[in-house]
Each structure stands twice: as C-alpha cells, then as structure tokens.
C-alpha cells in the first residue's frame, strides 16, 4: 500500500489486521520534501513561527534559540507523553501510526519525508508503541496519546515488540531500526492530530456494520420463534416511508424469512399486530444504519485531512495557525454512533423479553421445558437488561462537555477521545445482547418443531446450535455464550447465513 493523498476505511482495517506493508508514494515524497524546504527557509530567516521557533500553547510568545530547536521538539514529546490507563490494543496502535503518517504525507505539516518513513518502518516492522487510553481531551488533537505513539521514534518511551514490552530504544534495536533526531516543527507535527479518535472510529464503524447485519439475523430468528408476522417487511411499507436504512433492513428481513413453514402455520390466526420490537425492526434498525452512514461519511473526510497546526502553506508563502486539530466533528459522530448502537441493544432486549415471557410468547416460561426445577433463560434476560442499562449511561454524549486547558488558551475542547472509547464499550455490550437474543431465538425455534423456519433463520439456528446446545435443563451456559459472542464478532455466524440467503446489505 502507498500513502499519498488519502486512505479508505478498508485500507485502514487491512493495516490494522497486519495484512499490508505501507510505503510513502513517490508523488507524496516530492510534495512533502518541497513543503519541508519552505520550513527550513523560515528557520534560516529567523522568522517567528508558532511551534517552529516558539514554545507551545501558553508559551507561544516565547522565542526559542535556533540551537535549541531539536531539544524543543524532543521535550515536547517527553512532556506531553503523560497519558494514563490501560494500553491500547495493537490493532488500534497500528491504525494510529498509519493515520498519523497519512496526514503528514499530504504535505502541509512541514516535516521531512524521513520522518514519515520512520513511522512506517515501525508499523511495517511490528513495533507497537505503548499508548495509554486516557489523557486526551480531543482539542489540540490527541496530544498525550500521540506523544506516546511518537516517543519510540527518538528511542524513548515504551513499545511492544515480539510480544514483549520494551523501552523504545531496545524495541527499535531488536526490529533493526534506529532512533532519529527531530528537526524544527516535527515534534509538534507528530502530536497535533486526531488519530486516536479516528483510529477508534474506523474500528468502530467496521464492527458496527457487521453488528447491524447480525441484528437483522437475530430479529428474524425472534420473529420465527414468536410466530410473528412477515407483513411489516413488505416492500410497499418501506416504499411509503423510504428512509434508506429502513428499505435495506426490510429487504434483509424478507431474504432471511423466505421459505418459512412457521409463518404459513399461523396465516389465519387471530392476532392482528405484533409488538413494536418485531414489526418496527426496519424503522429502528434502519435508523441506526442511517446514523452509521453519516458517521462513515465524516470518517472518510478525516482520512484525507491534515489535522496539524500550524499549517505550512508553502505555495502561498504562509503559515496559518487554525483549528484543524479540533476533534469536534469526530466527537459528535462518535456520540451519535453510540446512541444508534445502544438502540439496537435496546430493541434486542425487548425481543428477548418477548421470547422468555410466556404471557407474550405462548411458549414455556423462560424457554425451559421444566420450569420451576429449571430457570432456563431467566437470568440471560437479566444480563441483557443490565447491559442495555449500562449502554444508556454510555450513550450520554461526551461532546457536550468541555473543560479549558493550557491556561485557557485551549478554552473549548471536544472530549472526542472519550466519546470514541466509550463507543467501543457500547459495541461490546451490544455484541453480548445480540448473542443472548440468538440463544433465546434458537430455543424458541426448537419449540416450534417440527415446523421448519425460514432458510436464513435455519442457517443461523444451525450455527448457534453448533456452539450452544439446546437447553433441556439448566447448565453452565457462559462458555457457550462466549463462543457465540465470538462468532458474532468474527463474522463466522454471518458468513454461514449469507452463504444461504446471499450477502445482506
């Protein structure tokens, strides 16, 4: 893969998985070199330029002597690398390295091509800087996380190499790399950016897009288990209120529910309408899809953006201090995504309640054939309820908060780093809730035997049963639930269903 003027989210996901080696494209190298030459002219002329010949933040009016420029850049990384909390997973660190290199490669940050080469060398060699998860307010970029990301470049900080946490210099040495010295502007260019937020969002979008399709599968299984109507998914319904997401979900439900014997068995039943959690699937799931589409669009823009400060506009002979590092665009969509994904868990839990409640399902209480002696899936619904309740707290927007920093120089911040982190917790919780719904739905389908469910539901049911045996009496279910959660996460359950009904949108 070559870095030039932009990346796709698929590119980032491939690099996160370790499937790509990355190099700087020749056109980008020329562009970056020309931009760097302008910075060196500014230094030679002794012009006052923020972050190049001055201090940072509140110290923007403090001029730095030319012989202290390298020390200034190194001190910047050292002083700002003071994040705390658990360290990021290696895939997110890989994404951060790639995205930081990409932003610099656009050629408006004033760095040398060699600096980008060094970032990519660490990425390609498997050197993973230790980046704590907490400490960014998402305003002047993700300062603390990016400083931790950059310290190993100069042989400091910590990095993981070969599965071992090492000091930065040792990690580079074992990987066959050497520390580098930073020139004017380069320390600042390494830490002014939104790459912590952006990496989390790329990962979250990929996860969420899979979970959206799994949610449709789980809903279809619940519809069959509850002997629900298929009519709410009629193409005319969506045509008369054609929100894009609802149209897609209705089509997915029709595909998943085709060929059902269960629906034919209750064609003339007296029930007029199903609960909203069944007949409202296209509208609720679809709204979450529409929200995620907007999130994806914002992230696409971020992947071809320069989020540095100041911006080096060599062609216009100008250096501009502005706010491209501010995380507000990402913070808002991270919160939007958290709300949208929390709603998928919310409606899924209501379907679980429909399945386990005999007054609603017409099935044995808690889906156990020997109620009283056995509790069945009683507490599985409790767990889903607990996760949904937790998501309601996590869906409270982080982006409505702001707390001034740097002696009020940075007086409005986005809190986008936390917004993007908690989104992943919402997705973790959603994954478990959908797994619980699949367990309950499969049990309900078993009770409808010998009627055969729809082809898509039958495929999902068979895969669930390969991991979670039919519940005939109480047993320790957690290991089986974890196995099913993994099948939801890695896409294997979805792959089995799509092999039967075609690719779901």
Task: Provide a descriptive summary of the structure in words.
The strands form four sheets. The protein has a three-stranded antiparallel β-sheet with strand order 4-6-7. The protein is elongated, with a radius of gyration of 26 Å. The chain has helices spanning 9-16, 26-45, 69-80, 90-105, 113-125, 143-150, 168-174, 186-191, 195-225, 235-240, 244-257, 261-265, 276-279, 281-302, 328-356, 358-361, 378-394, 416-447, 455-467, 478-490, 492-501; strands at residues 2-3, 23-24, 84-87, 128-129, 132-134, 158-161, 164-167, 311-313, 318-320. Helices cover 57% and strands 5% of the residues. The chain has two domains: 2-193, Fumarase C, Chain B, domain 1; 200-298 and 342-501, Fumarase/aspartase (Central domain) (Fumarase C, Chain A, domain 2, Up-down Bundle). The model has no long low-confidence stretch (mean pLDDT 94). It starts with a strand and ends with a helix. The longest helix has 32 residues, at 416-447. The chain contains 21 helices and nine strands. With 505 residues, it is mainly α.
């Amino acid at each position: 893969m070559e870095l030039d003027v932009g990346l796709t989210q698929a590119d980032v996901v491939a690099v996160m998985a370790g499937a790509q080696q990355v190099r700087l494209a020749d056109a980008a190298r020329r562009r970056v070199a020309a931009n760097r030459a302008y910075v060196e002219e500014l230094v030679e002329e002794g012009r006052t330029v923020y972050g190049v010949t001055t201090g940072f933040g509140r110290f923007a009016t403090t001029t730095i002597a030319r012989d202290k420029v390298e020390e200034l850049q190194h001190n910047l990384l050292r002083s700002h690398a003071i994040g705390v909390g658990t360290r990021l997973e290696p895939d997110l660190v890989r994404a951060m390295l790639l995205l930081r290199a990409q932003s610099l490669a656009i050629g408006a940050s004033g760095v040398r091509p060699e600096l980008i080469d060094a970032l990519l060398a660490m990425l390609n060699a498997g050197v993973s800087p230790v980046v704590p998860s907490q400490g960014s307010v998402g305003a002047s970029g993700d300062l603390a996380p990016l400083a931790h990301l950059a310290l190993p470049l100069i042989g400091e900080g910590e990095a993981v190499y070969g599965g071992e946490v090492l000091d930065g210099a040792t990690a580079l040495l074992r990987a066959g790399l050497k520390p580098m010295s930073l020139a004017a502007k380069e320390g600042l260019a390494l830490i002014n950016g939104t790459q912590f937020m952006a990496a989390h969002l790329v990962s979250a979008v990929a996860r969420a897009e899979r979970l959206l399709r799994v949610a449709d599968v789980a809903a279809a299984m619940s519809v069959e288990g509850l002997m629900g109507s298929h009519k709410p998914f009629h193409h005319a319904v969506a045509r008369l209120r054609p929100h894009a997401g609802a149209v897609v979900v209705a089509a997915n439900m029709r595909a998943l529910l085709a060929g059902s014997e269960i629906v034919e068995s209750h064609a003339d039943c007296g029930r007029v309408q199903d609960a909203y959690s069944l007949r409202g699937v296209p509208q609720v799931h679809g709204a979450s899809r529409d929200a995620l589409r907007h999130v994806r669009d914002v992230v696409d823009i971020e992947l071809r953006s320069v989020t540095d400060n100041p911006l080096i506009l060599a062609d216009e002979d100008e250096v501009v201090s502005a706010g491209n590092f501010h995380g507000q665009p990402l913070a808002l969509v991270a919160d939007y995504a958290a709300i949208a994904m929390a709603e998928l868990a919310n409606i899924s839990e209501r379907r679980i309640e429909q399945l386990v409640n005999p007054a609603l399902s017409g099935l044995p209480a808690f889906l156990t054939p020997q109620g009283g002696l056995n509790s069945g899936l009683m507490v599985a619904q409790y767990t889903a309820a607990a996760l949904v309740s937790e998501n309601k707290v996590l869906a409270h927007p982080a982006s409505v908060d702001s707390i001034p920093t740097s002696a009020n120089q940075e007086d409005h911040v986005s809190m986008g780093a936390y917004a993007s982190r908690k989104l992943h917790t919402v997705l973790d919780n959603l994954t478990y809730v959908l797994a619980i719904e699949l367990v309950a739905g499969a049990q309900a389908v078993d009770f409808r035997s010998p009627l055969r469910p729809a082809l898509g539901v039958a495929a999902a049911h068979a895969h669930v049963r390969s991991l979670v045996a039919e519940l005939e009496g109480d047993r320790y279910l957690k290991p089986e639930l974890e196995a099913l959660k993994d099948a939801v996460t890695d896409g294997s359950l979805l792959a089995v269903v799509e092999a039967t009904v075609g690719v779901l949108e």
